[in-house]
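hi! just following up on the protien thing from before. the input was this:
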Amino acid sequence: MVLYLAAFFHNKPTDYPIIGPILAISLAAGLIIASPDLDTGLFVLLLSGFLLIVIGVPWRRLLAIGLAAWVLALSVSGLYLHRFEKVRDRFEGWSTYISGRVDELSPEVIRGPLYQITQAHKIIVNAGPFGQGVGSRMPNLPESHNDFILASIIWSGGWLAGFMVLLAWWLILARGLQIAANLEGAQSVLALGLTLYLVLQAALNIAAVIGTVPIGGSPLPMVSMGGNSMLMAGVAMGLLQALSREAFGRSESQQEARRERGRRRTGQWEVGHGKRGRGLVPPTRGGAW
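and the predicted 3d structure came back as:
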């Protein structure tokens, strides 16, 4: 989706009709949600909407299109509501859990939708600042190698290891924004979109492990086990690396060109100043004009 938007708006004004991108985004997100995968579908809509705003599409147009799409989704939602019962249960259990009313939850809910969150919190609290060591026996945690791999890292390396993971993603975000700032046009949009694609996934995964958002199934890019996630994260990082060479190679060449122009102007000024000096200063006698 990021590649499509960057290619579509290449050499196109922001007031260009956007019915094509909107239909493509809506179709892709709709198919993902109907699969059913509500979290990934909402992620695609959020990322695409943010990129359209950054590109310069008027937010009023996006708001009107969003409202129309929402009305259309509501009109057909009755056909698919039964598919999202698990999503509703997870959200209700999560909202009750963060409000501190765990006693109101039934044992089935605690052992079901909230089991991963409660176990992850126990692991994080008991890990300590330096962890229990690599290979130490960890309490049972489903998907500890995938969605909840951050809890496994904290159990082995402690809170310090968790902080290093957060720092790494903060550096990736800062570097990606720096690359986008040094590029123009479609390349800048592409760099920003790839950065947000990686960082938003990481933020949702970390927030789900901590418990600040409901569990959505977003992996931790380049860390969680999974072929598709690892492949797409590697492609995104490779494209960012190529864009980085383009951005900073261009910056260095531009700086060198500016320095060369400055040296040329300085040399011309010195030559001209010397000639004018020899022509304007008359012979003197005894230091007088």
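Confidence is low (pLDDT under 50) at residues 275-285.
The chain has ten helices and no strands.
cheers
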